[in-house]
Amino acid sequence: MLDIFNNYRMIDLSEEIQPGVLKINGQYSWGKHIRRFQLRQFEAATDHTFMNFVEAETHIGTHVEVPAHLTNDGRGCSEMPLETFIGETIVLQMGSGPIHPAHLSKVHPRDILLLWSAAEDSYITEQAAQYLLDKPIKMLGVQNVAPDDPRAYEAGSTIPPATHQLLLSHDIPIIECLVNLQEIKKERVFFIGFPLRIAHLDSSWIRAVAFEPLS
Predict the structure, then answer these.
(1) What letters, b where the CB count within 10 A reaches 16 and e where it falls short, cover 132-152?
(2) Total domains present in the chain
(3) Distances from the Cα of 147 to the Cαs of 6, 66, 125, 172, in angstroms?
(4) I need a surface site. Which of 122, 132, 146, 150 has the fewest CB within 10 A?
(5) Do the beta carbons of residue 98 and residue 152 sit within 8 Å?
(6) Do 44 and 119 have their domain in common?
């Protein structure tokens, strides 16, 4: 391991996915997600090793959404620059209720921004989303913070899902379902969360990791 990692504490920010598993003996273990994520085991004919077919929705567990999620001609995961998913990161705890630009004054241009809340009703307002676009940030990640006003998804709502529309349309990805942000003690860390290099993919599971300085 490179000496540089001796100066950091690694914190895993990825949710462990518990898929449904169908084994070759017919035994089935149920998964823990409402959305489909299933492994089907098979034995390779050449060397008799065990492998898996995967049938899943990519918006399960810790995942990053890219512009192709919003528009048919948007860039997919394999088309986004690698440097988008790695770099200087600010971690901010939010309180209850809407998040406004004033809550984000510590954010620097080209930061990766990770937001978390212990409340159940924290969400990013359209004004805050525009503020992040104007910086601009490099990527947004959330834990227990709704990227958009929850009312935007109610039937007949005229409130737009502003954060998704504003950020994804300007090539700023959004990470959802992060975990363990509360374990980070420093406000500024280094973050890595690369998507799979699969063409046309609108969202990808990632192994999100924070490197927190020890000093």
Answers:
(1) bbeeebbbbbbbbbbbbbeeb
(2) 2
(3) 34, 14, 8, 13
(4) 150
(5) no
(6) no
Residues 6+ apart with CB under 8 A from 202: 58, 65, 66, 68, 69, 74, 76, 77
Find the CATH number of the domain harbouring 124: 3.50.30.50
**For every one of its 215 residues, what pLDDT tens digit does the chain have, with 9 covering 90 and above?**
455 678 899 999 999 999 999 999 999 999 988 899 999 999 999 999 999 999 999 999 999 999 999 988 999 999 999 999 999 999 999 999 999 999 999 999 999 999 999 999 999 999 999 999 999 999 999 999 999 999 999 999 999 899 999 999 999 999 999 999 999 999 999 999 999 999 999 999 999 999 999 98
Cβ-contact 112, 87 below 8 angstroms: yes
Whole-Å CA distances, 151 to 120, 137, 154, 155, 158? 14, 25, 5, 9, 9
Report the alpha-carbon distance of residue 125 to residue 182 in Å, rounded. Answer: 22
Instruction: Judge whether 70 and 164 are in contact, CB under 8 Å.
Output: yes
Please state the length of the chain: 215
Domain that holds residue 142: 63-213
Last residue of a domain, one of 56, 77, 103: 56
Specify if 91 maps to a domain.
yes
Dihedral, CA of residue 120, residue 126, residue 129 and residue 133, to nearest 10 = 170
Q: How many CB atoms lie within 10 A of CB 34?
A: 8
Does residue 41 sit within a domain? yes
Q: Say if CB 13 and CB 180 are below 8 A apart.
A: yes
Within a domain: 9: no
